[in-house]
Amino acid sequence: MSRGVHGVLGLVFVTAMSGALVAGLQAGLVYNSFPKMADRWVPSDILALEPKLRNFTENPTTVQFDHRILGESVVLVVTGLWLWGRKQPLPPRARKALHCLLAAAWLQATLGVSTLLTYVPVSLASSHQAGAVTLLSVALWLAHELKLLRRIPK
């Protein structure tokens, strides 16, 4: 389970860094619909810049698309980890951290979609940024609780 939590930590971190690009480029203002971007699943201007690699850091459409995919991946991976972890014999603190991780991931996704659909009001955008820190912190808490399990003598 600790490998899965470390994977979640990495995914949440990369997603938060992707969110920094979204904020910096004001990419949240480009497509304000969900789950599609306007009327398409993959927008036509996703690879508009040359060389193509520039799109991942400079094209607001690509940056928003990447952040959406990463955010959805976090929710899926965390939900899968929770489904698997609830069947495992975990101590109460690790179980609580696991439940909090699920709640934080879904709350963060809800904040992200709400921020997008309401054209990025500052209050929701800052809550979404704070949610990223919270989600990363809860994932670290779970990793810490699982690390403690290995130190407990049997």
Automatic annotation (TrEMBL):
Indicate the secretion signal residues. none
User: Where is this chain primarily localised?
Assistant: membrane
Protein's GO biological process: heme A biosynthetic process
Tell me the InterPro entries matching this sequence: COX15/CtaA_fam, HemeA_Synthase_type2
Any one Gene Ontology molecular-function term assigned to this protein's record: metal ion binding
Q: Does the keyword Thylakoid apply?
A: no
- Cofactor(s) needed for function: heme b
State where the protein is found.
Membrane
Pfam families, alphabetically? Answer: COX15-CtaA
Keyword list (alphabetical) reads: Heme biosynthesis, Iron, Membrane, Metal-binding, Oxidoreductase, Transmembrane, Transmembrane helix
* Gene Ontology cellular component list: membrane
Protein origin, superkingdom: Eukaryota
Name the reaction it catalyses.
Fe(II)-heme o + 2 A + H2O = Fe(II)-heme a + 2 AH2
Q: Pathway membership of this protein?
A: Porphyrin-containing compound metabolism; heme A biosynthesis; heme A from heme O: step 1/1
According to the record, the segments passing through the membrane are 7-31, 69-85, 97-120, 126-144
- Oxidoreductase keyword on record: yes
Q: Which residues form a coiled coil?
A: none
Specify the protein's topology with respect to the membrane.
Answer: Multi-pass membrane protein
- What PANTHER family does the annotation carry? CYTOCHROME C OXIDASE ASSEMBLY PROTEIN COX15, CYTOCHROME C OXIDASE ASSEMBLY PROTEIN COX15 HOMOLOG
Name assigned to this protein: Putative cytochrome c oxidase assembly protein cox15
The species this protein belongs to is Ixodes scapularis
